[in-house]
TrEMBL record:
<keyword id="KW-0326">Glycosidase</keyword>
<dbReference type="InterPro" id="IPR019800">
    <property type="entry name" value="Glyco_hydro_3_AS"/>
</dbReference>
<dbReference type="Pfam" id="PF00933">
    <property type="entry name" value="Glyco_hydro_3"/>
</dbReference>
<dbReference type="InterPro" id="IPR050226">
    <property type="entry name" value="NagZ_Beta-hexosaminidase"/>
</dbReference>
<dbReference type="GO" id="GO:0009254">
    <property type="term" value="P:peptidoglycan turnover"/>
</dbReference>
<keyword id="KW-0378">Hydrolase</keyword>
<dbReference type="InterPro" id="IPR036962">
    <property type="entry name" value="Glyco_hydro_3_N_sf"/>
</dbReference>
<dbReference type="GO" id="GO:0004563">
    <property type="term" value="F:beta-N-acetylhexosaminidase activity"/>
</dbReference>
<dbReference type="InterPro" id="IPR001764">
    <property type="entry name" value="Glyco_hydro_3_N"/>
</dbReference>
<dbReference type="InterPro" id="IPR017853">
    <property type="entry name" value="GH"/>
</dbReference>
<dbReference type="GO" id="GO:0005975">
    <property type="term" value="P:carbohydrate metabolic process"/>
</dbReference>
<comment type="similarity">
    <text>Belongs to the glycosyl hydrolase 3 family.</text>
</comment>
<feature type="domain" description="Glycoside hydrolase family 3 N-terminal">
    <location>
        <begin position="16"/>
        <end position="345"/>
    </location>
</feature>
<protein>
    <recommendedName>
        <fullName>beta-N-acetylhexosaminidase</fullName>
        <ecNumber>3.2.1.52</ecNumber>
    </recommendedName>
</protein>
Length: 536
């Protein structure tokens, strides 16, 4: 255990360059960590943002985390790295080997919120066992705008108190696992209809309104012991009319530090996102964030940008901050205060790795994931009940066939599963041996209506994926589903492998079965529910 004097002594011996390096969490493309070694050697950076592009398996993850920490140990101060991953359920890494669970929206639908702690313990244990020591989750955002293109299934729901309870349990699960927990996206991304990967959204809420809604999960997460809070690039004009949250001293210092009392690390969301990149000079924006109250600036590898000079831009930001400290634009005292928080976390709480999970523990993680996923499936609207076991039963993939592939091509963050939710759903039905006629989107559009008229049941599977900077084509699915559901309401079952907010589009006598998730485990659970329909 390092005392206050120990940490201050380390800080006093650090050069300006070394101090500045600890204020940056950076990323690199591909599977070779040697690419980022020059930045570790020269600046001793705080850590790395790791995505599916850097490692796809547990073995690869263990190798790169070992190499990265070895690089850090050979620097003058030997300070270990924070290795952060978007392992939050709906988004994940090391897929399909890791157990992501069904995601937050599904967990929020559970009657027993304590299961959230069980799932987040699994997330943390698996990541820490390969050397990923910081979960960039849970999302503490409240779904106050259900059609949000980027939050949706990443949120625990639309009830602030329920979300707050789930966030607290998620933090507890992380703490038990030994992994660091991150609340995001402060002061809340759930009230936006825009995506900060593309633009700066606006939220027209007063501070009083925020404390009643968006801020409640962050307050409970901080009380539960969250180590890190990640900022959002959102403008709250009734609180700070000029600066998005990441660049706002009012939001970060006055509200998060002073009003809420958070004493941990404030981490920016990626400064490469469109909300910042399109409106600010990259290097200048990092300086503004640090002055506003951010402790660690994150520059993650954004694949919708495909910037060839990505690492050069990271270096430019480091040098800009170094120059600012030397010139007095960024005070040494404030930098030292940030460093004290960072080193206190790294040296007194952060773990580098736990032993790889045994076969027994891995099987236990699988069981926990599947049990929770099964419990999340709900029938939200009863029409055809129970599902006929005989006669013609048609199963339709409402999504255009190429939609998922085009969205996830060469993407390091997001769902990262190899197959679509529908494919997992269909495979589970096929393995049961029961007879279904399977139609894709185009086949369903072209199908002779006589077959639909003769069918005993029509299953229409809808899905959605929260992807950064991209939209999954929901409109095409909903148009097809509405058409068939309106014509054949009494025999139609909508299977929602997504958020349930689409339910308002369909007739009241349509059955709506919801898994609240597009994860593979959720799709399998939905299929099992269809097969066990009389028991539900």
């Amino acid at each position: 255990m390092h005392t206050t004097n120990d940490i201050k002594s380390i800080i006093n011996k650090m050069s300006v360059k070394q101090k500045v390096g600890q204020l940056f969490l950076l990323a690199y493309p591909g599977k070779n960590p040697e690419i980022i070694k020059p930045l570790i050697d020269e600046y001793g950076i705080a850590g790395c943002y790791i995505s599916q592009d850097n490692a796809e398996t547990f073995d690869e993850a263990e190798q790169i985390s070992s190499k990265l920490q070895a690089m850090a140990s050979q620097t003058q101060n030997g300070i270990p790295l924070i290795l952060g991953v978007d392992q939050e359920g709906s988004w994940g890494v090391l897929v399909p080997e890791s157990h992501t669970g069904p995601g937050n929206l599904a967990l929020g639908a559970l009657s027993d919120s304590i299961r959230v702690a069980d799932m987040y313990r699994v997330l943390g244990e698996e990541m820490l066992s390969v050397g990923y020591n910081a979960l960039l989750g849970p999302c503490a955002d409240v779904n106050l705008t259900p059609d949000s293109p980027i939050i949706g299934a990443r949120s625990f729901g639309e009830d602030p108190e329920k979300v707050a309870r789930c966030v607290a349990y998620a933090v507890q699960g992380c703490t038990v696992s030994g992994a660091l927990a991150t609340l995001k996206h402060f002061p809340g991304h759930g009230s936006t209809s825009g995506d900060t990967h593309r633009e700066i959204p606006r939220v027209e809420r007063t501070l009083y309104e925020l404390f009643k809604t968006d801020l409640l999960p962050f307050i409970k997460g901080v009380e539960a012991g969250a180590d890190i809070v990640m900022t959002s690039h959102i403008l709250y004009p009734k609180i700070d009319p000029e600066n998005p949250a990441t660049l706002s001293p009012v939001i970060l210092k006055d509200i998060l530090r002073n009003r809420i009392g958070f004493k941990g690390i404030i981490l920016s969301d990626s400064m490469n996102m469109g909300a910042i990149r399109k409106f600010y000079d990259p290097a200048e924006s990092t300086l503004l964030a640090l002055k506003a109250g951010v402790d660690i600036v994150m520059l993650s590898e954004e694949h919708y940008d495909h910037s060839a000079d990505y690492l050069d831009k990271q270096l430019a930001s480091l040098r800009k901050a170094e120059e600012a400290v030397k010139s007095g634009k960024l005070s040494v005292q404030e930098v030292d205060e940030k460093l004290f928080r960072i080193l206190s976390l790294k040296l007194n709480k952060m773990q580098l790795r736990t032993p790889r999970l045994s076969a027994q523990r891995y099987s236990e993680a699988e069981r926990i994931q599947n049990d929770i996923s099964d419990q999340c499936v709900q029938v939200l609207q009863k029409g055809l009940w129970p599902l006929p076991k005989a006669g013609t039963r048609i199963c339709i993939n409402a999504a255009p066939e190429t939609a998922y592939r085009s969205l996830t091509n060469a993407r390091g963050i997001g769902p990262n599963q190899k197959k679509t939710a529908y494919e997992y759903f269909k495979e589970t039905l096929e393995k049961s041996g029961e007879n279904f006629i399977y139609l894709n989107h185009n086949e369903a559009l072209a199908e002779n209506e006589d077959r639909f008229k003769r069918a005993e049941a029509i299953l229409i599977v809808t899905e959605d994926y929260p992807l950064p900077g991209e939209d999954f084509p929901k409109a095409e699915q909903e148009k097809l589903a509405q058409k068939l559901a309106t014509k054949y309401a009494e025999k139609t079952v909508i299977v929602g492998l997504r958020s349930p907010y689409e339910i308002k589009l369909y007739p009241k006598n349509v059955t709506y079965l919801c898994a609240f998730s597009s994860r593979g485990c959720a799709a399998k659970s939905a299929a099992k529910a269809i097969l066990q329909f009389p028991q539900m």
